[in-house]
Design goal:
mainly alpha; 10 helices; membrane; iron ion binding; binds zinc ion; globular; two-stranded parallel sheet; Fatty_acid_hydroxylase
């Protein structure tokens, strides 16, 4: 049993590493095409971002691999495959619940890690990216990676979710993690500056966190930042899409 769990964890680490490589590599390539040379001077930093991210992939794979094994072999978790097991309206609702709970966990742990006592030990690695690049998506110290790695594996025991919606949650997590760090805004100005945009976090919002540190702590939504008075608006240094 030990080896089955260990192999599941290692396989999951490999999947997370490949996912990182493919998604960050893709957006780094898009960035190079849009703004040639933008990452040119950041090569040593990018190498460090890759190194930390691959260690993070290893950390992320462990809880995910254990839970995946338990789901397959022991019927753990509340992940369901039969689409009719819950009403159809529950599919989008469960998506929002997962994103909101993940965002809540991220906001408060992230904010705690900006306390000087924790910052140096846990979070300085992530902020060593100045400015961050698409490769910084998982550039965390292992202790910080662990706080991120346990969220979804814990939530699947608490909140029922269809396997496809879980895939969507992971896809959104990956997409936003990469694009929020890549140094330019991919969403149209019309959306970013709309009323809806005022509640969503994209690159323009997270870039400001990397510029000013003690603000804009959220992950997907600006709800907690706005409620707690830590929302300092959008960075004005990013290139934006027109339209
Ligand atoms: Zn960041
Ligand atoms: Zn931070």
């Amino acid at each position: 049993m030990f080896w089955a769990v260990a192999i599941s964890a290692l396989a999951m680490s490999a999947i997370v590493a490949l996912r990182y490589w493919a998604s960050s590599g893709f957006f780094a390539w898009v960035t190079e095409r849009r703004m040639p040379g933008r990452y040119g001077a950041l090569k040593p930093q990018i190498r460090r971002e890759m190194g930390w991210s691959l260690v993070s992939a290893l950390v992320y794979g462990v809880p995910a691999g254990i839970v995946a094994w338990g789901w397959e072999e022991r019927g753990w978790t509340r992940i369901y495959e039969d689409i009719g097991a819950y009403p159809l309206w529950y599919l989008p609702v469960s998506l929002v619940i997962y994103l909101f709970l993940h965002d809540t966990w991220f906001y408060w742990t992230h904010r705690a890690m900006h306390d000087p006592r924790l910052f140096r030990r846990m979070h300085a690695v992530h902020h060593a990216s100045r400015p961050p690049t698409a490769w910084a998506a998982m550039s965390f110290h292992p202790s910080e990676a662990l706080t991120g790695a346990i969220v979804i594996p814990v939530l699947v025991f608490l909140v029922p979710i269809h396997i496809a919606v879980l895939g969507l949650v992971l896809a959104i997590m990956t997409l936003m993690g990469v694009t929020n760090h890549m140094g330019w805004e991919m969403f149209p100005r019309r959306l970013v500056h709309s009323r809806l945009g005022g509640w969503l976090i994209t690159a323009s919002h997270h870039q400001r966190h990397h510029e000013h540190y003690l603000c804009n702590y959220g992950l997907y939504f600006r709800f907690w930042d706005r409620l707690c008075g830590t929302d300092k608006g959008l960075s004005d240094k990013l290139t934006e899409q027109t339209g």
